[in-house]
Design brief:
It is found in: Membrane. It is an enzyme of class 2 (transferase). By secondary structure, the protein is an alpha+beta fold. It folds into three domains: 282 residues, Rhopdopsin 7-helix transmembrane proteins (Up-down Bundle), CATH 1.20.1070; 196 residues, no CATH class; 130 residues, 2-Layer Sandwich (Heat Shock Protein 90). The chain is built from 17 helices and 21 strands. Strands 1, 2, 3, 8, 9, 10, 11, 12 and 15 form a nine-stranded antiparallel sheet that branches. A hairpin with a 5-residue loop joins strand 1 and strand 2. The longest helix is centred in the C-terminal third of the chain and has 78 residues.
Length: 805
């Protein structure tokens, strides 16, 4: 496990890691339990991948800012590929959000190909940087390499805006252009209350804006508009807010079955992490400003590195040896200095060296800040001050050389953190290999910075070449002199002393952050159980019981709070419902009695109408005929007395028929028919009876015969008799055709005559025969069709088809 130095950045990375762990675990649990709807699984899988990659990114970022640079730089190499995978997962999530699965999608396939290409590119960059790092050289990403990140995050915003437009267009039935304007208005007004599906897209849009800001910050840093410190701070906070927003958006809009307590715990967890992270930054700023390291270089001091015969070095304090004769100013721009002698340094000898304006010397090239922070750089080097210095009009690098020594002086430079101060110091290289650091003017305290290590004095000492380098880290204030082994460098790591100082402050903060997380998920649910979960559960069960119809349910009131008020309100509502139902039951009973009475009266009315129809069909025709003959009998007696006897016989016959038919009606009222016949047989009897009375020629055709249900049998027989009597008596028909076709569930009866016909619209109201036939057939679910034209005869068709329902 590498040595860790806790600081505000590492606390933020820890918060990001904890957020991603919670989100990833929560999403994975829901996928494992199958809690999501089938069509939403792919979105949740992408969300889980995004949160998991962010977790890996947080781990890489954490070690890059918390471990020593010789370890942290290796983790930093993986940050870009892993960060790209998290961005790609979220872009795919944004693209697919709200879309129905429709098989092959060429746009999504193109997007995947772009992801693969960019991931391969990021991986190639990381491999090349790793190779350079193996040589001790730290290479940063090129300026343009950050542009794809920003472009992808912008693409996520565009996808979410497009999906919001589509949702608004479908829900509000608007054209795309109008829906686009509505979508922009929704995004610009986060306080507006909108439908859930629109709100979910808007929430994830806001989530995507934060990492998009990170990409923009990275591009601005590449072009020099922002410093590393500003970008690191913005990136960490943007990622924190993005992940917190992602968790909140998921709890509120994606997981339809998330309980209230789960949402409350999740949001509490987010608030705790964000607040503690913010407090760590406030505390960090205060502690950084008050930091003072007694081991930092001070005025009128010297350090002596004595070279031993075996090539090892002994580091000790020395009497102040600053040489006021600083020589001449160096004006060469390549910063190379030729030595007047061959200078032995560790196991090598050098003829020249390269100076850096901030108090560093390299023997192969000019030292770079990015390199010296990683295992002190790739080359043999001397670090006299190693702090960022700014040149003024009086500043300069001066050199004086003699036969046995070379003196290099940094004269009147200013610390980058405080330009009002002056810094003057020098290094002396002796022919025999000794090295002396002398400090003439050094501010009382050189300020250190959390983000940019080179703003304060990073280190003092000497290191050999990078290959098999070993370094002894010493505390100048306590363990000098120190003798290193041959080939070992000696370094006073002031930067690590500063980080150790911050670690004493922020290690407890990190532990408190972890403990707070455990308390939120372990203790908070128990606290919620008593005050919220149990009362809400009782309220929910009571409401479900009431909705199921158990209105006698009474919800117990645990606490006199909002939930207790709701419980009391539901109890009152249930009591009101019970009272209302009792009142309704009483009124229903009263209305039922009234309806029963009305039904009885209606039944009597229907029976009267039926008897009226029966009497008309079976009796009134005979009585009517007998009445006509009786009316004509006086005239007949006077005019033709020979026909009186025949007329009296007809009257007798009609009266007898009426009496028989009345007897049949009474029999139908008391008993059912003694035997069941096919309708064809019954139809033949009816035709036989009618032809006896009227001597009309009737032609019968039966397509298929069947036994009809009793009520259908009765209705069809009445229609047949009525039609034949009307055709024979009133239409003066000489020929009648009767057609019947029936099976068990349907029947058709057609009566066609060649009589004088009539106009159906001109039938007098007192002639009730046609009306009664229509009422009879309609009562059994059949239909009656009457077609008649004066002088052209009449066709009456009755159709019945059984209702399968």
């Amino acid at each position: 496990m590498p040595q860790l130095f806790w600081n505000p950045l590492s606390v933020n990375c820890l918060a990001i890691g904890l957020l991603s762990i919670v989100l990833s675990a929560f999403v994975f649990r829901r996928l494992y339990l199958g809690s999501e709807k089938q069509k939403a699984v792919r979105f949740v899988v992408l969300l889980w991948l995004c949160s998991t990659f962010i977790l890996v990114l947080a781990i890489c970022q954490f070690f890059s800012v918390t471990a020593k640079p010789d370890v942290g730089n290796y983790f930093l190499l993986f940050s870009s590929p892993v960060g790209f995978l998290s961005v790609a997962s979220f872009v795919a999530f944004a693209f697919l959000w709200g879309r129905e699965s429709s098989g092959f999608d060429w746009m999504f396939s193109v997007l995947i190909l772009i992801f693969l290409g960019l991931f391969g590119f990021e991986s190639w960059i990381s491999v090349q940087r790793y190779k350079e790092l193996q040589r001790g050289v730290v290479e940063f990403r090129e300026v343009w390499a950050d542009i794809p990140f920003s472009a992808l995050l912008l693409l996520a915003c565009i996808f979410l805006t497009t999906n919001l437009t589509r949702v608004i267009s479908v829900q509000s039935n608007l054209r795309i252009g109008v829906a686009s304007l509505r979508a922009l208005k929704v995004l610009a007004t986060p306080w507006r209350v909108i439908p859930v599906e629109q709100a979910s897209v808007r929430a994830f849009f806001y989530v995507s804006v934060w990492p998009f800001g990170t990409g923009i910050a990275a591009v601005l840093r590449s072009y020099g508009y922002l410093s590393w410190a500003e970008v690191d701070t913005l990136s960490v906070w943007f990622l924190t807010f993005a992940l917190a927003g992602l968790l909140v958006a998921y709890l509120n809009y994606v997981s339809e079955t998330s309980s209230f307590s789960t949402k409350l715990i999740g949001m509490t967890f987010v608030v705790v992490l964000v607040v503690l992270s913010g407090i760590s930054w406030l505390v960090g700023g205060i502690y950084v400003q008050t930091y003072s390291n007694p081991n930092d270089p001070t005025s009128q001091t010297s350090l002596h590195f004595e070279r031993q015969e075996n090539g090892a070095y002994r580091m000790r304090h020395a009497f102040p040896e600053f040489d006021a004769n600083i020589g001449t100013r160096i004006r060469n721009h390549d910063r190379a200095v030729e030595l007047p002698f061959s200078f032995p340094f560790f196991q090598d000898r050098f003829e020249k060296f390269y100076w850096h304006p901030s108090g560093m010397i390299g023997f192969h090239s000019i030292p770079r800040w990015r390199d010296v922070q990683f295992q002190y750089g790739p080359q043999p080097a001397i670090f006299v001050l190693a702090a960022e210095l700014e040149a003024t009009s009086h500043s300069g690098i001066y050199m004086r050389s003699t036969e046995d020594r070379v003196i290099l002086t940094w004269h009147q430079f200013s610390p980058a953190m405080d330009l009002k101060q002056d810094v003057t110091f020098q290094v002396t290289l002796f022919r025999k290999g000794d090295i002396v650091f002398s400090y003439d003017i050094i501010p009382s305290a050189i300020a250190h910075d959390l983000y940019e290590a080179n703003l304060g004095s990073m280190m003092r000492g000497i290191v050999p070449g990078f290959g098999e380098r070993e370094v002894v880290e010493v505390d100048i204030g306590s363990n000098l002199p120190v003798l290193a082994a041959p080939g070992q460098g000696i370094i006073a790591p002031h930067r690590y002393e500063f980080l150790a100082y911050l670690n004493r402050v922020f290690a407890p903060v990190a532990l408190y952050l972890i403990a707070s997380t455990l308390l939120v998920f372990a203790l908070f649910p128990r606290l919620l159980r008593t005050s919220i979960t149990l009362p809400l559960g009782q309220l929910l069960r009571g409401v479900q019981s009431i909705m199921a119809g158990n209105l006698s349910t009474k919800i117990s009131i645990v606490n006199r709070d909002e939930i207790g008020f709701l419980s009391d309100a539901f109890n009152e509502m249930a009591q009101s419902q019970r009272d209302l139902i009792r009142s309704l039951e009483r009124k229903v009973a009263e209305r039922t009695a009234e309806v029963a009475e009305y039904a009885s009266e209606n039944a009597r009315l229907q029976e009267r109408n039926r008897l009226s129809n029966e009497l008309h069909d079976l009796v009134s025709q005979n009585l009517f005929s007998a009445n006509l003959i009786a009316d004509a009998l006086p005239d007949l007696i006077l005019q033709n007395s020979d026909q009186v006897g025949d007329a009296l016989k007809d009257i007798q016959l009609f009266n007898k028929n009426a009496l028989n038919e009345m007897r049949e009606v009474l029999v139908d009222l008391r008993t059912e028919r003694p035997e069941k016949k096919s309708f064809g047989s019954l139809l033949r009897l009816i035709i036989q009876d009618v032809t006896k009375q009227f001597s009309t020629e009737v032609n019968l055709m039966i397509e298929s015969d069947t036994e009809l249900p009793d009520e259908i049998d009765l209705v069809f027989s009445r229609i047949a008799r009525e039609s034949l009597v009307n055709a024979s008596k009133h239409s003066n028909a000489s020929a009648i055709q009767v057609y019947f076709d029936g099976v068990g569930s349907q029947a058709l009866l057609r009566v066609k005559d060649n009589g004088k016909g009539f106009s159906p619209l001109g039938v007098a109201p007192r002639h009730m025969g046609l009306q009664i036939m229509n009422e009879r057939i309609a009562a059994v679910g059949g239909s009656l069709d009457i077609k008649s034209t004066p002088t052209l005869g009449t066709v009456i068709t009755a159709i019945w088809i059984a209702d399968e329902n």
